[in-house]
Specification:
The chain is of the alpha+beta class and about 675 residues long. Helices cover about 30% and strands about 25% of the residues. The protein has 16 helices and 35 strands.
Length: about 675
């Protein structure tokens, strides 16, 4: 049996693949252009061209942005909603928020049109007691009407179903017997949690993307089976775990943000191997900049994310903050005479000016080229490299330099300064504003453009060290391969903690754990062990935001939980509220199937750099002056090499800039560790 496994990450520009033999440590990196009309074509092509016959692969793990993009671009399926009479507009009413903080401007369109939201007679109270039985005939009529109106998927979402799902389950039975496509989303199955708007929105997202993701995964799975692959395709979840393609098809909302989540998982794993358990992971590509905080070698999770305005998704996912800032971000001077960078991006087509694909607007990549930081002749798919520099210079001069009265080089430096300020602000948002001091972390830089700006960012934020993995561009594909199987469960109680019966709490947590264990067994994916973690969401009466603490089960103790909650609250707010009543909002269980760990020395460098060789150099612009900088080939840097800035480190998937005064070396597991010269120590 082959020990080869393949991880796949699909981006807007490139499809990255990492094939790995867990026994021998052999690996192969592939990068293909994403086939935008049908992303599965590039995925299949890359898998079939791998180092192992597809029939002999032990696993294929896929991180996808299909679900996320379908919602953001509003390209999902036509959906219908069946809900409690009187609650037809729950998805539009939402919370008392507005699209823009200032002024009554903006608009919102729910994922499900109003004429496709139908009501039926049924009612439960907040404790789950039946006040009005479900009218099954009305359910049948609603299903028929939605089908006639062209709905492809249906959401069943009743008031207080978190407390008792009996009516939703019965309506689902009727739908399974009468709904032709089989795409049925039941809110209490997806999210057994209070708050009707958030639960309904999460279920609506699930239905909205289900037909699209189902079709996409079916194309890949069918093709893999045709060539003899004998396992289920594994799909990344937004929580950093994996699940099988059939399970992802049933609950596609779990795959939202799965691509960035894979990168965070890899950052945690690689950082831990290098001795950095606390890192700020920064993934900078052509369009976006994704930031996540990793504490104790574990990515931070959140169940409070909004996919877009008015579209909350309340399933657990890695807490990632994204801004529109990448190598392709366009620089411009606005009507007030201020320099702006992004969020608009030149993307892959037409791309930056220096790519020679028809782009005319200067970008961050063009600024990096003008300042000597990159060599686009090594970029795949770049045309007219002889004119690349002069074209980029002319575009920056016309669009930025002349309007601002700056020389071309100064205008390029200003573009990078503005971009760096935006990146630093994003890092502050996920660190300082959440109680973390960046100085206690290392900066983990990946993505094609991440290492280009990492040292400057670290100096700005007083972060002492930067870690750049061996292959920054395929970090998310690596994350797919090292992710464990994972399932999360939640059930709302919403009662004073002191009133919670220990046996009932233990029963709920036991049921959640057993459900997760059965799911992992059913997925038939080899795991080394299964671990179960229990948590509780708590708040003080009158508050609306919760804190999550670990709990013990069996042996749930309200007193112990209250003490843990008080400690957590004091740690966050430095206050003790002895007279307040703790409320248990929800009980949660996470079930993780641990897959076999990767070889720690996978990308290690054991050879020494040859002495006596003269390094190539080029002039690079730093802090107002051109400096002669050594240019290194990443593949030729030995474990004994000490790199002193200014320097440029080039590799096939990225370029790393070492600023003056900073130094770098390769560690024992192949990562580049940069000691940053801080301006204000």
């Amino acid at each position: 049996m082959s020990h080869w496994q393949t991880g796949v990450d699909v981006g807007g520009t490139n499809t990255d693949l990492l094939s790995l033999n867990r026994e021998t440590g052999e690996y192969k990196v592939d990068k293909l252009s994403t086939t935008t009309t049908d992303q599965s074509l590039a995925v299949i092509q890359g898998i079939e061209s791998g180092p192992s016959p597809v029939a002999e692969l032990a696993a294929v793990v896929h991180g996808t942005t299909i679900a996320t993009n379908a919602v953001l671009e509003r390209k999902g399926a036509r959906c219908g909603l069946i809900t409690t009479r009187g609650f037809r507009d729950i998805l539009e009413l939402g919370r008392r928020t507005r699209p823009n903080n200032y002024g009554m401007t903006g608009s919102f369109e729910p994922l499900i049109d109003r004429d496709l939201r139908l009501e039926v007679s049924e009612r439960l109270d907040a404790r789950g007691r039946v006040l009005l039985p479900l009218d099954e005939d009305e359910v049948l009529v609603a299903l028929k009407t939605l089908h006639e109106l062209g709905a492809e998927a249906v959401v069943i979402h009743f008031l207080h179903a978190y407390a008792n799902p009996v009516h939703e389950q019965r309506a689902a039975e009727i739908a399974r017997a009468n709904w032709p496509t089989g795409f049925i989303s039941i809110s209490s199955d997806i999210l057994r949690e209070v708050r009707e708007f958030e639960r309904g929105s999460t279920a609506a997202v699930n239905a909205y993307v289900q037909p699209i993701l189902s079709s996409y995964l079916s194309r890949i799975s069918d093709r893999l089976q045709e060539v003899g692959f004998g396992h289920d395709l594994l799909v990344m979840q937004g929580n950093g775990g994996t699940l099988t393609a059939p399970a992802a098809t049933r609950q596609p909302v779990q795959t939202v943000m799965s691509g960035p989540a894979a990168g965070a998982v890899a950052a945690a794993h690689i950082g831990h191997q290098s001795g950095f358990d606390n890192v700020i992971a920064c993934d900078m590509g052509g369009t976006s900049f994704d930031v996540s905080v990793i504490v104790g070698a574990t990515p931070s999770l959140s169940a409070e994310k909004d996919l877009a305005y008015g579209i909350p998704v309340r399933v657990p996912m890695v807490d990632i903050h994204t801004i529109g800032a990448g190598g392709g971000s366009i620089a411009r001077v606005d009507s007030a005479g201020l320099l702006r960078v992004g969020p608009e991006s030149a993307g892959a087509q037409p791309g930056p000016v220096c790519y020679g694909r028809g782009g005319t607007k200067p970008t961050v990549t063009d600024a990096n080229l003008v300042l000597g930081r990159i060599d686009v002749s090594g970029f795949s798919g770049v045309e007219q490299t002889k004119k690349a520099l002069s074209n980029a210079q002319e575009a920056i001069k016309q669009e930025i330099g002349d309007p601002l009265g700056l020389a071309t080089v100064d205008a390029a430096a200003a573009i990078l300064a503005v971009s760096c300020n935006q990146l630093a602000s994003a890092i502050r948002l996920v660190s300082i504003e959440k109680g973390h001091d960046p100085r206690d972390f290392a900066l983990f830089a990946f993505g094609g453009a991440g290492p280009l700006h990492a040292v400057t960012l670290a100096a700005e934020l007083a972060i002492p060290q930067v870690l750049v993995p061996r292959f920054p561009g395929i970090t998310s594909a690596l994350g797919c391969l090292i992710s464990d199987l994972r399932h999360d469960y939640v059930e709302t109680l919403w009662r004073p903690l002191a009133d919670i019966d220990q046996d009932i709490a233990d029963q709920i947590l036991k049921h959640q754990g057993e459900t997760g264990q059965r799911a992992i067994v059913d997925e038939s994916v080899p795991v080394d062990e299964v671990e179960i973690f229990h948590e509780a969401d708590l708040m003080y009466r009158g508050q609306s935001h919760v804190f999550r603490v670990a709990v013990q089960s069996p042996g749930f103790s309200s007193d112990a939980v209250a003490e843990s909650f008080a400690d957590r609250y004091r740690e966050r707010f430095d206050i003790i509220l002895e007279d307040m009543t703790p409320v248990l909002a929800s009980l949660r269980t996470t079930v993780i199937g641990r897959r076999h760990d990767l070889t720690h020395s996978l990308f290690s460098t054991s050879y020494s750099t040859a002495t006596g060789e003269t390094l190539p150099t080029r002039m690079v612009y730093f802090n107002g002056e051109w400096l002669t900088s050594n240019v290194y080939d990443r593949t030729q840097i030995g474990s004994d090499t000490r790199i002193e800035g200014p320097a440029i480190i080039q590799q096939v998937d990225s370029t790393c800039v070492i600023d003056p005064g900073s130094t770098a070396k390769i560690d024992s597991v192949g990562n580049l560790i940069i000691d940053v010269m801080l301006h204000n120590k």
